[in-house]
Amino acid sequence: MYHILVVDDESRIRAIIRKYAEFEGHTVTEAGDGMEAVVLCRRNTYDLIIMDIMMPELDGFSACREVRKITQTPIIMLSARGEEYDKINGFELGIDDYVVKPFSPKELMLRVDAVLKRVNRPVITGGASTPNQVIEMDNGGLKADVTARIVYIDGERVDMSPKEYDLFFYMLNNRNIALSREKLISEVWGYDFFGDARTLDTHIKLLRKSLGPYARYIVTLRGVGYRFEGN
Q1: Which of 46, 94, 163, 194 is 20 to 30 Å from the Cα of 203, by its Cα?
Q2: Which of 119, 154, 175 is the last residue of a domain?
Q3: ω into residue 102 within 30 of 0, thus cis?
């Protein structure tokens, strides 16, 4: 199946995750702190990383930042704290999911499966002669190359997390359409997403931050979801 790196300073937590992961057929490697995790990622390749935030030597956020310099391996972050700030910080670093302790090992495995399915989803590409689809708004102030997944704000290229790109291009391709929260979650995260709607709201905040003055195009529909307005 898959090789998972479990990073947590509590051996009991690592043992529980190992038990359930191995039951699902996965191979597990353990690390007791962030420093050890970074060293392991420099030496080996993993299919997914489950990482705690509060750890000695190097905390999960710092470790994630270092890991992202090496690999884009999907990361599920664990934390005893569920504050929105921590989630936003994690998603800005490029994590794929956020699980609050105490957690259900079975639910964690469902999240592992969901992340791995999203990451390994087949990519359909056009031929070499297919012209890029480019959408411009505000006289080119907001420019999106849909085919190349590149966004420009007032001529400057903007870097987003993979999930921000997914969310932005889906809303852009469905602009002027009311999109329910359930629709966005199912289309962007997949029907097998086991998170909650707050993950969507967090990514909307991150996306608005990335779009700067053009965040106004994302309109909140109270009690429904969101709409991306524009021609």
Answers
A1: 46
A2: 119
A3: yes
Nearest partner of 94 among 70, 123, 121, judged by Cα: 70
The domain containing residue 16 runs over which residues? 3-119
- Tokens representing 9? 């300073």
Count of residues for the chain? 231
Instruction: Identify whether the C-beta of residue 224 lies closer than 8 Å to the C-beta of residue 184.
Output: no
Which stretches does DSSP call E strand in 81-224?
Answer: 97-100, 134-137, 142-145, 150-153, 156-158, 179-180, 218-221
Name 153's bridge partners: 142, 156
Rounded-to-integer distance, Cα 48 and Cα 168, Å: 25
Task: Decide if 203 is inside a domain.
Answer: yes
> Per-residue pLDDT tens for 94-140?
888 888 888 899 989 988 988 888 776 554 444 454 567 888 888 88
Alpha carbons 157 and 147: distance in angstroms, whole number: 15
- Residue spans of beta strands (DSSP E) within the chain: 3-7, 27-31, 48-52, 75-79, 97-100, 134-137, 142-145, 150-153, 156-158, 179-180, 218-221, 225-228
